[in-house]
Amino acid sequence: MKASVLALALQAMAVQAVRILQSNDDGWAELYLRTFNDALRSSGHDVIVSAPAENQSGTGGRDAEPSNRQAACHYNSCPPNSGAFGHNATRPDLNWVNSFPATSMRYGLDRFGPELWGAPAELAVTGPNYVTNLWLAVHFSGTVGAAVYAAHEAGVPAIAFSAASPAGGSQPWTTTPTPSHSLVYAELATQLVNKLVDSGKPYLPDDVWLNVNFPAATGACSRASDFKWVLSRINTGLLSSRDVEWCGSDRLPHEQRVYDTDGCYIPVSIGDASDRSTVNDVARQEIVLDKLRDMLVCLP
C-alpha cells in the first residue's frame, strides 16, 4: 500500500485544502470512516468527524436530540456515563453524538465545526458505509440521511459513500493491519472529493448530493486504479423528464445497472436532497457532469 500513500501525498501537493465535516451511520469508531478520515487528512484537508456513538444503520433521516449514554460507546470507544456527546481525549476533531446520523451531522455543522474552525464546513461527506445504498435502500440509509441533511437543511454540498463489504460485519478502527479493501475505498473516495474541490466553488449545485457506491475491492478490482466512474441516476426514471446528454443518450444509466456491470464500475448518482431521488433538472445535472467529465467513462 506504499503506492497509495504516495498517491495521496502527491494529491495533497496539488489540491486546495478545505473544511470537511465527516459522518456515517456505522458509528464514529468504525474502520471505514477512520481510514477515509486518514486519507482526507493525508490529502491536506481539515476534517472534523461527527458521527453516532454506535451503529445507527437504517435510521434514514431521523433527527432527535442526543441523550446521555449509560453504556460504553461502540467498540468501547468511550466509557459508560460519558454524556450525550463527546470527543477523543487527544483529538477534538473526532466527535461522537449519542443519536442518529442526521443529528450527528447537525451537531457537527452547528457546533463542533464552528467551535474548532471558527468557520462553517465547506463540504460534507458520509461513510463509506459498510454495505451499498442503491436505489430503494437510499430512502432508509442513515449514511444518506446525514448527507441529505447537510445538502438540504444546511446548504452544504455533500457526498454519501457506500461500499460492498466482506461478510462478518463492520470492524473497529483499531483493526491492524488495515484491510486492503478499506484502503482502496478511502483512496477512491478521496479522489472524488479532490476532483470536486479542484473544480471550484460551488462544489455542487443547490440541494444536490452525490450517491456513490463502490463494488467489491477484490480480484480484478483490487486496486483503486482498477475502478472506473460512471454518472448515473438513483431511480429508474421511467416517468421522469429526460437527463443531460451523455454517452450518446439523454437517459443516465440506473445506478444498480452500473454497479452490476462487470468491470469495476462505480455509479455516481446525482441526487435531489429534497426527496432523495435523481435530480430531474438538466441544468443542475450538466453542472455536475462538467465538474466530473474528465474522470467519467461510459458503460460498454
From TrEMBL:
GO terms for molecular function: metal ion binding; nucleotidase activity. The keyword Signal applies. It comes from the Eukaryota. Residues 1-17 form the signal peptide. Residues 20-218 form the Survival protein SurE-like phosphatase/nucleotidase domain. Keywords: Hydrolase, Metal-binding, Signal. This is 5'/3'-nucleotidase sure. It comes from Stachybotrys elegans.
